[in-house]
Specification:
binds S-adenosylmethionine; seven-stranded mixed sheet; Rossmann fold; 9 helices; 7 strands; 226 residues
């Protein structure tokens, strides 16, 4: 495995030479990232690193057993580690990523082009993926922010009533324009990241105000049970 920056090395606990299962979310030593942030650049680090299922679930404040299926993971990473873990634990889950390997539930595709459907998914998750890209486009004026905003609304439309979109980092400028009678937004601090190098990467790139995970629930129409 590629050696990582100081903090990540400390996170992995690899110094003791113990065998680790990279897909075990209960393994506190699961490797979380690859590459040296300083060496390859903060943005590319943020966009390319893949995380353990444990970290993704912690950051997004998701309890896997309560996660309504089917689950779509947007920007699931090459290995689709969360998708694999959810499927191994009996959840219907699919992941899309530009670089997805061939594998059960994994689709190599672009989140801008994929047919997400309408009222299809119980949960859509995107850990350090779609919203990172959106935030970067927004703050750096890359010309993609409008396209991201349209996609964000398509993602919400792809949720079944009562379904939720979980993502980090948060997107305050989108969450603030959602109609409260149609969507319920909640935010959770990214305490799972505190003290890790990713915390600094996010703060340097985006500023402290976006350091939270968001959950947007599509409310059920009045009188309709979830
Ligand atoms: C930082 S990684 C996070 C991966 C995974 N969610 C995790 O937490 O381990 C971001 C992922 O988004 C994917 N990605 C970037 N742009 C994409 C796009 N337009 N469509 C699909 N995937 C994209 C990248 O290939 C990368 O695997």
């Amino acid at each position: 495995m590629t050696r990582t920056g100081d903090d990540t090395t400390r996170d992995t606990g690899e110094e003791d030479g113990a065998q680790r299962d990279p897909d075990d979310p209960d393994d506190p030593h699961t490797p979380d990232g690859q590459g040296d942030p300083e060496a390859i650049g903060l943005a590319s680090t943020l966009f390319l690193t893949e995380y353990s299922p444990r970290t993704q679930l912690e950051v997004l404040h998701i309890s896997a057993c309560d996660l309504p299926a089917p689950v779509l993971d947007l920007g699931c990473g090459r290995e689709g580690r969360l998708v694999r873990w959810l499927r191994d634990h009996g959840k219907a889950a699919v992941g899309i990523d530009l670089g997805a390997e061939a594998g059960p539930g994994l689709v190599a595709g672009n989140w801008f082009e994929a047919d997400l459907g309408v009222e299809t998914w119980g949960s859509i998750v995107s850990h350090m993926a779609f919203s990172s890209y959106f935030m970067h486009s927004h703050l750096r004026h890359t010309g993609e922010a409008r396209r991201c905003a349209a996609r964000y609304m398509a993602i919400l439309a792809a949720l079944v009533p009562g379904g939720a979109f979980y993502y980090a980092p948060g997107l305050p400028f989108m969450e603030h324009v959602l109609t409260p009678n149609r969507f319920e937004v909640s935010r959770q601090p990214l305490e799972a990241l505190q003290g890790r190098w990713l915390d600094r990467v996010l703060a340097d790139l985006f500023g402290k105000t976006v350091l939270y995970a968001a959950r947007v629930v599509r409310r059920c129409p009045r009188g309709q049970a979830p």
